[in-house]
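I am writing to request your help with a piece of structural work I have in hand. A protein sequence and the structure tokens that stand for its backbone fold form the material at issue. Please examine both parts with care and let me know of anything in them that strikes you as inconsistent. The record follows directly beneath this note.
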Amino acid sequence: METHMTLFHGENWESIVVYVLHLLAVFAMSILVEWLSHTRLINSDKNNNVVAGLMQSGLYSIRIALAYLVMLKVMSFDAGVFVAAVGGYSLGFLIFGSLVFDESGTAPYHKPADLPPLNC
């Protein structure tokens, strides 16, 4: 009996459909990490510091967990997963962190976000 500890289902893909679904999941998680990195969900005017701090900690936990899940999947050394992760992070930054969709003229990465930037 052989057991494996893997993030999704391992490297024995049943079909191309399952493989594409895994790639889409990695792509979506990457975009979600970028969205959480550049969003303002916490209204500090309506919340006291304790509630705002707990909400910020919860968002940070979700973001870092998603980032680690993407990293673990990339460590499977599958080129398709690598391309899906980089593509997701790139598209997420294009949508949420660049000047492409910002009409105010101020770069979104100069605006304060709820969470500190991801650091390597």
Remarks:
- The chain has one domain: 16-110.
- Residues 16-110 form one domain.
